[in-house]
């Protein structure tokens, strides 16, 4: 058999098994799903040494990756424990499946409402981040979905070790092991087949670099939940509390560099630019952050480099920060509209009316007041582990948790009612 034909048939086989398993998971009780999640968490705890050993092998083979990808790939004992904790946290969340809302009587006497239901089969394609294997499995299972997971080749051993824990946990709970399947082929064509079989897959969630997501969006024949870039902003208003502004501006950039909710551009109101830049400049220098700045910023920030036009729309995922002085709120909003990616943007201000304007007029999936952009995360939002972040405007927007992995259907309750 031709290798490409054989690979296509393998992927379709995964899809058929996932579709069959999705029916069983959709009717599983909350208790069954939670038991499976707790069993998987225990398996991960018990297998932590083996998972770390597999990850160490992946890390050794990943010498050519950049620092941001290495950070996402690396597992530590704390990260493995967090992975298991995430499964337990999802188990503790309210099960959305079967919830009926907006039930109301119509003049005809029928009751009309909406019921939350699983999506079916979710395909997740991701680079590095082996923790996504556990996070995605947890959320898909709790929301009553089957999942097909395709991690990057750089994390293949880590993902296989975690996948073994998932299979064992599902088996212990009496649920089909095909409810979560790992696509282990590193052939580029495997992804193309996965995203083009709507008969088996209901939605695709890509998590990775811009190139991956653009490719998936271009080739997919099923709906895609995605975001392309995380060009996040913090705007320090001239009515900001300086202590809050300092803490937020440092945390949003420096708490972790390689994440999509890290601040990439700092906007500072002109009226407070001099004292604010003199305060923040040395703090960024101490942390090794390179500043790429507008001319007004450079005048008060020793060592800053002149920003290019490309810097304002850049997602660095590194200790590099674009800084611009703006006239005020209007110009800050205009800048975010022009260069932002509709991911996460924050204002630091003590002026309630300006805060409300920012919340209303900045069209991003997460908009914040007096808080670090690093909070744009499923755990921090109380969603449990997130499947990804969506900057689209349909179905799911922002961190996609349990509710984002379900849909709604109308239900009608009658008592022999017939339409006249």
Give an overview in words.
The chain is an alpha/beta fold and 420 residues long. It contains 14 helices and 16 strands. The chain has a seven-stranded parallel β-sheet with strand order 10-9-11-8-7-12-13, sandwiched between helices. Strands 5-4-3-6 form a four-stranded parallel β-sheet, with helices on both faces. The longest helix is centred in the first third of the chain and has 24 residues, at 3-26. It is globular, with a radius of gyration of 23 Å. The N and C termini lie far apart (61 Å).
Shape assignment: globular
Measured by DSSP, the beta-strand proportion falls in: 15-25%
Query: Helix/strand/pairing class, anyone?
Result: alpha/beta
| Spans where pLDDT lies below 50 across 5 or more residues | none
Largest sheet: number of strands, sense, barrel closure: 7 strands, parallel
End-to-end Cα distance, whole Å, is 61 Å
Radius of gyration: 23 Å
Taking all residues together, what is the mean pLDDT? Answer: 93
Element-level helix/strand string = HHHHHEEEHEHEHEHEHEHEHEEHEHEEEE
How many helices in DSSP terms? 14
Q: What is the percent of helical residues?
A: 40-55%
Strand order of the largest sheet: 10-9-11-8-7-12-13
**How many E-type strands?**
16
């Amino acid at each position: 058999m031709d290798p490409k034909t054989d690979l296509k048939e393998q992927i379709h086989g995964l899809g058929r098994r996932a579709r069959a398993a999705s029916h069983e998971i959709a009717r599983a009780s909350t208790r069954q799903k939670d038991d499976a999640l707790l069993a998987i968490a225990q398996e991960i705890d018990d297998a932590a040494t083996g998972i770390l050993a597999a990850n160490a092998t992946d890390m050794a083979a990943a010498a050519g990756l950049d620092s941001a990808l290495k950070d996402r790939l690396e597992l530590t004992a704390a990260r493995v424990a967090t992975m298991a904790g995430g499964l337990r946290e999802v188990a503790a969340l309210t099960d959305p499946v079967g919830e009926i809302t907006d039930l109301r009587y119509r003049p005809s006497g029928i009751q009309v409402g909406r019921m939350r239901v699983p999506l079916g089969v979710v395909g997740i394609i991701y680079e590095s981040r082996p923790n996504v294997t556990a996070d995605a499995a947890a959320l898909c299972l709790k929301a009553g979905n089957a999942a097909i997971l395709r991690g990057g080749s750089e994390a293949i051993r880590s993902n296989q070790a975690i996948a073994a824990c998932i299979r064992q946990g599902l088996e212990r709970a009496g649920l089909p092991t095909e409810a979560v399947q790992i696509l282990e082929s590193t052939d580029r064509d495997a992804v193309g087949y996965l995203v083009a079989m709507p008969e088996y897959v209901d939605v695709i969630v890509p998590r990775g670099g811009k190139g991956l997501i653009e490719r998936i969006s271009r080739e997919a024949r099923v709906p895609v939940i995605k975001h392309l870039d995380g060009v996040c902003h913090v705007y320090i208003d001239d009515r900001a509390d300086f202590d809050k502004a300092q803490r937020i501006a440092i945390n949003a950039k420096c708490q972790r560099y390689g994440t999509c909710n890290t601040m990439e551009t700092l906007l500072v109101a002109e009226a407070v630019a001099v004292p604010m830049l003199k305060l923040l400049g040395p703090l960024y220098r101490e942390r090794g952050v390179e500043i790429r700045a507008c001319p007004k910023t450079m005048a008060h920030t020793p060592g800053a480099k002149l920003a290019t036009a490309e810097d304002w729309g850049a997602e660095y995922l590194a200790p590099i920060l674009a800084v611009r002085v703006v006239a005020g709120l209007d110009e800050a909003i205009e800048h975010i509209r022009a260069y932002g990616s509709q991911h996460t943007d924050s204002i630091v201000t003590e002026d309630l009316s300006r805060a409300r304007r920012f919340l209303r007029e900045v069209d991003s999936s997460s908009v914040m007041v007096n808080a670090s952009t690093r909070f744009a995360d499923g755990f921090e939002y109380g969603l449990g582990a997130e499947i990804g972040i969506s900057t689209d405007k349909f179905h799911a927007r922002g961190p996609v948790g349990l509710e984002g992995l379900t849909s709604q259907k109308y239900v009608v309750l009658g008592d022999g009612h017939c339409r006249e």
